[in-house]
Design goal:
Length: about 130
Amino acid sequence: MIEQRNGRGVQYPRLKALIFLVLCALPLFGSASLWLRGISPIPLAAYGAVSLLALFLYWNDKRQARADQWRTPEKVLHAVEFAGGWPGALLAQQLFRHKTRKVSFQLVFWIIVLLHQVFWVDQVFLGASLFSW
């Protein structure tokens, strides 16, 4: 169920959809190019599968919070985001209005998103030079 806020759904849905698309463009392009070049389909598949898992975990955590039951630990949510589920987590945060106000959680979440962006900038534009130890 999508939670209503002030009688409305997601605030600024067009702007948020645009931001979502911009953030997903580089990881999608990078992982799709790995697949199309015959290197590996795993990153592309992982983003999709782990994002679905993140969406489910956020939905379940919101449901459990409302019922005052056992919650999904934040470190589990962050681990799933780091594993490639951040697009699903970002979508879930907006759809379910969950984990959007806790600053410490959002800080870690956006650092994870930034790390993914830096990784794909390195892969796509810098020839994997930043992470070649």
